[in-house]
């Protein structure tokens, strides 16, 4: 049986960056990474770029790099997928039937897209007008639908589950609005944001700013609307009204952008020792250590951390996890670094503007710049489009970017958290 000092399950944003930190601390070959992406595509994607791909500003290719280029060279890449976790035996079972042993485990399997929970999908993606920025398979169709749009309803959905990047379902809507204005079809369009949530955004400061934007741009927001079916033949989308669960409402569409329901990866959900009732990895919200197994930690979208699931959150989580796991490895019990829930969502509101939301577990803004970030800004847009991708590939994935905490402190002359 293969055995590793540190085993990382998943080589996405969280897994790759944490593996890089431990690979530079420990001798070569001590860190193993189980990452299944190799089997099909051999690719690591910078997913935040897909918002821009859907708006025609970047291509899927721009968001991709071979997995072999991004995983740390000093670590061993196990090209297989996790079938289940056996935390009581310190082993992970792989789909190939092999088992891998570990002293310390980091679970970083991301979140699972569940398009097939919506009746009529994924078949409707084969028809015109239906796209989704959440998948490399369908993101190009978002921009195609936008280019083809002539008149009618353009509907943007938000499912009734936790999602990654809770801002992305509406970012593409603002981009679409600007695109339609530039191409002279906006006055023939009705834009709808049909969301399962009871609010436009979870943090009041940014929700207030976004309500102003939707009002100015004449976008209709329908709260408590959950997409349950797409009928491509008649080009209709059926929504369950969550405040009257027996009722549905059907909308005709010319363009439909789908944010799919999401859930914990099967390997986590089926390993009941590892997960919370929700099916996500059960970790302490401050230390990221598993609540029952002290040699297991979790990071990113697959965990039950009660914060918005983003790569920005993972940057902040990575260093906390590293420090705390190192303490456990060195049998020090004193220093416990605490994660404050920091997350960030660059709410792109068009082709040159962005509201840069940054906040903690309690919904308190934790803004990097000493300006009001709830106002749309060109600087924030260029950070999102031009600076963040380089930072991701060059620093984040190498375990060298721990979020903007230090910059924030400096820019606020030490007066910020
Ligand atoms: C459209 C869109 C826009 C976004 N915008 C932003 C943004 O502006 N800012 C931001 O910070 N974040 C944004 N995000 C969110 C961000 O991309 C994710 O939160 C982040 O990538 C999650 O990292 P992760 O490591 O938890 O999961 P992932 O990066 O998804 O990695 C999980 C890895 O686990 C592997 N895996 C899964 N199951 C198995 C298995 N059984 N065995 C082995 N390997 C497995 C997968 O192949 C994958 O490589 C956006 C996401 C999307 C889709």
From TrEMBL:
Keyword terms of this UniProt record: FAD, Flavoprotein, Mitochondrion, Oxidoreductase, Quinone, Transit peptide
MF terms (GO), sorted A to Z: FAD binding; glutathione-dependent sulfide quinone oxidoreductase activity; quinone binding; sulfide:quinone oxidoreductase activity
InterPro entries: FAD/NAD-bd_sf, FAD/NAD-binding_dom, Sulphide_quinone_reductase
GO BP terms, alphabetized: sulfide oxidation, using sulfide:quinone oxidoreductase
Catalytic activity: ubiquinone-10 + hydrogen sulfide + sulfite + 2 H(+) = ubiquinol-10 + thiosulfate; ubiquinone-10 + hydrogen sulfide + glutathione + H(+) = S-sulfanylglutathione + ubiquinol-10; a quinone + hydrogen sulfide + glutathione + H(+) = S-sulfanylglutathione + a quinol
PROSITE patterns named among the record's database cross-references: PROKAR_LIPOPROTEIN
Domain FAD/NAD(P)-binding: start-end pairs: 4-123, 204-312
Entry similarity comment: Belongs to the SQRD family.
Keyword Mitochondrion among record annotations: yes
Its EC number(s): 1.8.5.8
Organism: Artemia franciscana
One protein family per Pfam: Pyr_redox_2
Cofactors required: FAD
Function per UniProt: Catalyzes the oxidation of hydrogen sulfide with the help of a quinone, such as ubiquinone-10, giving rise to thiosulfate and ultimately to sulfane (molecular sulfur) atoms. Requires an additional electron acceptor; can use sulfite, sulfide or cyanide (in vitro). It is believed the in vivo electron acceptor is glutathione.
Keyword presence, Transit peptide: yes
Top EC group: oxidoreductase
Domain of life: Eukaryota
Name assigned to this protein: Sulfide:quinone oxidoreductase, mitochondrial
GO cellular component: mitochondrion
Localization terms from the record: Mitochondrion
